[in-house]
């Protein structure tokens, strides 16, 4: 079977890493988790988005670029499939929301250069939910850097994600997208929800690996 890249996407706190870990254990694919809390600008960003957004986004872009380079060399090129708890395209979603008119064009140029030859997802799993659900789950996990997170920022981010994914499906009809509404599903705490989601995902993974 061929190696594939599976990416899990959605707003902050929606459960991307939990689902990626579940797929790693269930399918035996390599797990890639993004580096988030090692970003020295994250806490400052949540306190002052305008001041720290460019530094934050550049740090994330460079780290994700290096991670994807590594998985391409060490796993995908060796016939080993990978599940990641992010897709590199998320960089543009966040950048368009947070960067100034002066910095955004510069950032997008760098993004295009760095991502030109990176591996692209064969399958995208998209988790979405209302602002109430997202904020409740962020509060439950109670991470210090997220305690000052602005609700308005998160609400806009959810809308940005939904709009981006609609456009992504239109422009990438060859990349299957599986969507889950996490207002109705809590796969972290309800085994029956987790099992149902696996029943939707696993056949698609097997199908892609056999192509």
UniProtKB/TrEMBL annotation:
Q: Which residues bind ATP?
A: 10-18, 137-141, 185-187
State if Transferase is listed as a keyword: yes
InterPro entries recorded: DCK/DGK, Deoxyribonucleoside_kinase, DNK_dom, P-loop_NTPase
A Pfam family of the record is dNK
- Record GO terms (molecular function): ATP binding; deoxynucleoside kinase activity
What residue ranges are annotated as transmembrane? none
List UniProt keywords, sorted A-Z.
ATP-binding, Kinase, Nucleotide-binding, Transferase
Superkingdom, natural source: Bacteria
Would I find ATP-binding among this entry's keywords? yes
Residues in domain Deoxynucleoside kinase? 6-201
What CDD domains is this protein classified in?
Answer: dNK
The UniProt entry's GO CC annotations, sorted and at most eight, read: cytoplasm
Q: Which family does it belong to?
A: Belongs to the DCK/DGK family.
Descriptive protein name? Deoxyguanosine kinase
Origin organism is Brevibacillus parabrevis
Q: What is the lineage of its organism?
A: Bacteria, Bacillati, Bacillota, Bacilli, Bacillales
Gene (UniProt): dgk
């Amino acid at each position: 079977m061929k190696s594939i890249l599976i990416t899990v996407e959605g707003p902050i706190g929606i459960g991307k890493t939990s689902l990626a870990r579940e797929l790693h254990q269930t399918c035996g694919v390599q797990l890639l988790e993004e580096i988030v809390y090692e970003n020295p600008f994250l806490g400052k960003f949540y306190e002052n988005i305008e001041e720290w957004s460019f530094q934050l986004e550049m740090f994330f872009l460079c780290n994700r670029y290096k991670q994807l380079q590594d998985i391409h060399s060490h796993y995908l090129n060796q016939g080993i499939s990978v599940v990641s708890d992010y897709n590199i395209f998320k960089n543009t979603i966040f950048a368009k929301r947070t960067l100034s008119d002066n910095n955004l064009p510069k950032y997008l140029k760098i993004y295009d250069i760095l991502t030109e030859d990176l591996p692209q997802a064969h399958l995208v799993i998209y988790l979405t939910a209302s602002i109430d659900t997202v904020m409740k789950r962020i509060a439950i996990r109670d991470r210090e850097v997220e305690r000052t997170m602005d609700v308005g920022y998160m609400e806009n981010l959810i809308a940005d994600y939904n709009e981006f994914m609609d456009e992504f499906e239109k422009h990438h009809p060859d990349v299957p997208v599986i969507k889950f509404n996490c207002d109705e599903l809590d796969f972290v705490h309800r085994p029956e929800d987790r099992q149902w989601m696996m029943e939707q995902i696993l056949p698609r993974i097997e199908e892609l690996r056999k192509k």
